[in-house]
């Protein structure tokens, strides 16, 4: 008999009429709230204007949500655009959201920080990205755990003793599966600890771009590997040697390596 963990937890915490609080939304919000406190601590330590924090938080919220949403449609559902362009755009931008792409969120953050820097020229761009990736790693841990609570983005069937039977996932066969969401959540949490430790060690002396490079290599390098253990998100991926998540991860990892190597060349650790 295959060992298994039965997961039959409701994604909804409380529901009153049409109003409901879901685990995913709560965890998503917690990522922002805790991240805000960490960045506030960074700003205070490095004598940055704390008045800019609210503007930065708003920039990040909009960048992540819009980037993730647009990324999902462009990368996974772009073929539906010509069917009904207006309905497509409305569904893409207006809540409730049925899909968020982490690659889109990453691009959104990079673009959002460019906009923030242009409006606040006293900030160095890589200074911003190096500090934002710390809290982004923590946010990723919360979001992937939210996916687990939703019984979505499940892994492939497995006979491992930690295989999880997702009773509330009706998209795939009801068999024990890799808890791929937890793999990614734990990886994000470990990355957060590493990035936070490196920042605490060097603070303002941290080589410009080093934490940014580590973030992209770690997150999307592991994402490439974990995809082998996950079910494809869309049917069109079933005919591909590498799925969309893996294809998108390759250039992001290369970008991260470039930024990391450049940072170490400009300011070797010693």
Keywords:
270 residues; mainly alpha; two-stranded parallel sheet; two-stranded antiparallel ribbon; 8 helices
**Helix-strand string:** EEEHHHHHEHHH
Q: From the structure provided, what is the oligomeric state, counting identical versus distinct chains?
A: single chain
Q: Strand order across the biggest sheet?
A: 1-4
Number of separate helices? 8
DSSP helix fraction: 55-70%
Domains (count): 1
Instruction: Give average pLDDT, whole number.
Output: 90
Q: How would a textbook summarize the main sheet?
A: 2 strands, parallel
Termini Cα gap:
54 Å
**Gyration radius, to the nearest Å?**
19 Å
The portion of residues forming beta strands comes to 5-15%
**Estimated structural class:** mainly alpha
Regions with pLDDT < 50 over 5+ consecutive residues?
A: none
**How does the overall form come out from the CA principal axes?**
globular
Number of strands: 4
Describe the protein's architecture and organization.
With 270 residues, this protein is mainly α. The protein is built from eight helices and four strands. A hairpin with a 2-residue loop joins strand 2 (12-16) and strand 3 (19-22). Helix 5 (125-149) runs antiparallel to helix 6 (180-202) and helix 5 (125-149) runs parallel beside helix 7 (210-226). It is globular, with a radius of gyration of 19 Å. The protein starts with a strand and ends with a helix. The relative contact order is 0.13.
């Amino acid at each position: 008999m295959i060992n298994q963990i039965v997961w039959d937890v409701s994604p909804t915490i409380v529901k009153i009429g049409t109003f409901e609080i879901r685990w995913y939304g709560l965890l998503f919000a917690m990522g922002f709230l805790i991240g805000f406190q960490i960045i506030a601590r960074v700003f205070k330590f490095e004598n940055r204007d704390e008045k800019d924090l609210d503007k930065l938080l708003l920039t990040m919220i909009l960048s992540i949500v819009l980037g993730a949403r647009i990324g999902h449609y462009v990368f996974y559902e772009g073929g539906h655009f010509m069917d009904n362009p207006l309905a497509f755009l409305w569904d893409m931008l207006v809540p409730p959201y049925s899909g968020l792409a982490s690659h889109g969120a990453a691009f959104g953050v990079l673009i959002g920080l460019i906009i923030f820097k242009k409006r606040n020229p006293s900030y160095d761009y890589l200074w911003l990205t190096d500090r934002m990736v710390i809290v982004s790693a923590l946010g990723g841990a919360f979001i992937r755990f939210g996916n687990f609570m939703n019984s979505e983005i499940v892994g492939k069937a497995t006979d491992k003793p930690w295989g999880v039977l997702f009773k509330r996932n009706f998209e795939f066969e009801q068999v024990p599966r890799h808890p791929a969401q937890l793999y990614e959540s734990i990886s994000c949490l470990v990355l957060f600890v590493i990035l936070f430790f490196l920042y605490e060690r060097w603070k303002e002396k941290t080589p410009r771009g080093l934490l940014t490079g580590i973030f992209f290599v770690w997150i999307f390098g592991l994402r490439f590997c974990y995809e082998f253990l996950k079910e494809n998100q869309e049917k069109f991926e079933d005919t591909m040697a590498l799925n969309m998540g893996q294809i998108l991860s390759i250039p992001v990892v290369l970008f991260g390596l470039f930024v990391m190597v450049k940072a170490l060349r400009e300011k070797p650790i010693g």
